[in-house]
Design brief:
The chain is mainly alpha-helical. The chain is 48% helix and 9% strand. The strands form three sheets. It has a two-stranded antiparallel sheet. It is elongated, with a radius of gyration of 30 Å. It starts with a helix and ends in a 5-residue tail after the last helix.
Length: 344
C-alpha cells in the first residue's frame, strides 16, 4: 500500500514539475528577438489576432508560445491599438502586460510649414490617421461654419509647438486636440491684446506669418509688426514681399527657390499678393512661431512705414518714415543685389 502511495506521490511531483517547466517556458522564459535595448511596435485600430501576430513576428522568438500565453491571459479578447515598447529580454508575460498598459505617446513638433496640405502630410506620417481623413475633418462644413472659418483660414488654428499624441489618435481626436490647444493659447490676455491692435486671433496668426517670413531675428519682429500695423491703420497695402514669394510658390510649386522678388512678380493676381490687394491675405503663409505671434500682439510703437534689408547687418532691416528716406536706404540693397548678381 505504501509503495502505491509513493508511486502516486512521485507521479504527481513529476507531473507538477513538468507542468511547472511548461508554465515557466510559456510565461517567464525570454522571448524577444532583437539586439537593441528596446523596440516599439504599432498595433492598428481593430487589429485581429493574426494582424497582431504579424506585427510581433519579427520581434519575438516563438510566436506559438506567445500565442498560448496570450490565450491563457485572454489578451486576444481585448487587443488595444497603439504604440508599445518592448524591452530586450522580455518574457511573454511582460510582453502582454506592456501591450495592455504601456501605450507610449509620440512627440510631434511642427513649425515653419507653408501649407495646410504639407502640415497634414507631416502629421499623417506620425499618427495612425491618414492625410485624407485628417483633411476631411478639418474641411467639414459644420466645423468650419461653427468657427467662422473656411478651407484656407482653418490653417490659422495650428499653434506651432511640441505636442504628445498617442499613435492611434484618430482624425477627430487630433482635430479636437488642435482646437483645444488653440483655445488654450488664446486666453483672455491675448484676446485683449489682439483687440488693441484691431485684429482677431485668426488675423493675428496671418499677420504673424508675414512677420516671421520677413525676418528670422526674433528681436526685430516687434518692429516689423509695428510697420505692418501702421500700414493697416492707414489703409495702405501691406506690400509684403513674403506674400509675393508665397504667391509664386503657390503657382510654381513650394519647392521653388526664390532669392529675389522682381517687379513683374508684384503684379501677379492672387488674393495672397499684398501688392495687388489691400488688407491681409486669406490665411497664414506659414505656421508662425510663438515669437512672431507675440510680436504682433506686443508691437513696437513707432511711426515707421517702410523698411529694407540692411546688407551690413544680415537678417536685420533699415526703417524709414517717408518714401524718400526709404528710397535712399534702398540703394544699398539694390547695389548689393547687382554686385552679387542675384536675379531671382
Amino acid at each position: 500500500m505504501k509503495k502505491v502511495i509513493y508511486i502516486i506521490i512521485f507521479a504527481l511531483i513529476t507531473i507538477g514539475g513538468v507542468g511547472g517547466i511548461y508554465f515557466y517556458k510559456i510565461f517567464y522564459e525570454s522571448n524577444t528577438l532583437f539586439n537593441d535595448e528596446h523596440v516599439f511596435i504599432k498595433i492598428p485600430t481593430n487589429s485581429t489576432e493574426n494582424q497582431l501576430l504579424d506585427s510581433l513576428g519579427k520581434h519575438v522568438k516563438d510566436l506559438s508560445k506567445f500565442s498560448k500565453a496570450a490565450n491563457y491571459k485572454d489578451y486576444f479578447l481585448n487587443i488595444k491599438p497603439g504604440r508599445y515598447k518592448l524591452e530586450n529580454g522580455f518574457n511573454n508575460n511582460q510582453i502582454i502586460n506592456s501591450l495592455r498598459s504601456n501605450n507610449v505617446p509620440i512627440k510631434i513638433t511642427y513649425n515653419n510649414i507653408e501649407t495646410f496640405d504639407q502640415l497634414i502630410k507631416r502629421i499623417s506620417e506620425r499618427i495612425e490617421a491618414d492625410s485624407l481623413s485628417l483633411s476631411n475633418v478639418f474641411n467639414e462644413k459644420k466645423f468650419l461654419n461653427d468657427l467662422g472659418l473656411n478651407s484656407e483660414s482653418v490653417f490659422s488654428l495650428f499653434i506651432p509647438n511640441t505636442y504628445e499624441f498617442f499613435w492611434n489618435t484618430s482624425a477627430i481626436q487630433f482635430r479636437e486636440r488642435i482646437l483645444k490647444e488653440f483655445d488654450r493659447f488664446w486666453n483672455d490676455s491675448r484676446i485683449e491684446k489682439s483687440k488693441k491692435v484691431n485684429l482677431n486671433p485668426i488675423e493675428v496668426m496671418t499677420l504673424a506669418s508675414i512677420v516671421q517670413k520677413e525676418t528670422p531675428k526674433v528681436d526685430e519682429r516687434p518692429t516689423i509688426a509695428g510697420v505692418y500695423l501702421n500700414r493697416l491703420e492707414r489703409n495702405m497695402k501691406l506690400q509684403a514681399d513674403p506674400t509675393v514669394v508665397y504667391t509664386i510658390k503657390k503657382r510654381d510649386g513650394f519647392d521653388t527657390k526664390i532669392r529675389r522678388v522682381l517687379y513683374k512678380d508684384l503684379r501677379i493676381k492672387s488674393p495672397y499678393n499684398t501688392y495687388v490687394y489691400r488688407g491681409l491675405p486669406p490665411a497664414p503663409i506659414v505656421t508662425p512661431d510663438i515669437s512672431a505671434i507675440e510680436a504682433v500682439l506686443n508691437p513696437q510703437k513707432h511711426s515707421f512705414i517702410y523698411f529694407v534689408a540692411d546688407v551690413s547687418n544680415p537678417g536685420y532691416h533699415l526703417f524709414s518714415r517717408t518714401n524718400a528716406e526709404h528710397n535712399r536706404k534702398k540703394r544699398q540693397y539694390t547695389n548689393w543685389l547687382k554686385k552679387n548678381r542675384i536675379r531671382r
